[in-house]
Specification:
Blueprint (H helix, E strand, L loop, with lengths): L10 E13 L2 E14 L2 E10 L5 E8 L4 E2 L8 E5 L2 H24 L2
Antiparallel strand pairs: 1-2, 2-3, 3-4, 4-5, 4-6
Length: 111
């Protein structure tokens, strides 16, 4: 019978922040999300950000157990930045255009 113990752990920390304001009918804002997952083999840090009406951008970085950046295969910087789906962005763009058209119609009608 072996008397070996395993020291395995993982830890995760996440937070999200957002801010939106409306100035004279113009909405502006920003949101971000950060997640850190630490395991015995290393740490993964994921950050996402988005300006109101703009595309969301996600960046993921990996570090080994010694804290050194790990390069992703096919990406020399070890980081991945990508836009979220084009379909979602197209939907948001259409909604934005609709709101703008409604706002112009209100102003032209004197409402």
């Amino acid at each position: 019978m072996s008397n070996q113990s395993s020291n395995s752990f993982s830890s995760s920390v996440s937070y999200t922040s957002s801010s939106t304001s409306n100035n004279n009918g113009e909405t502006t804002g920003y949101r971000s999300s950060h997640t850190t997952l630490a395991t015995p083999s290393g740490t993964t840090v994921t950050s996402s950000s988005q300006n109101y009406g703009g595309p969301a951008v996600t960046e993921t970085r990996h570090f080994d157990s010694q804290g050194r950046a790990v390069e992703s295969s096919g990406n020399s910087s070890g980081r991945v930045i990508e836009d979220f789906s084009k379909e979602e962005q197209a939907k948001r763009d259409a909604e934005y255009e609709e709101r703008i058209e409604e706002e112009y119609a209100k102003r032209e009608g004197g409402a």
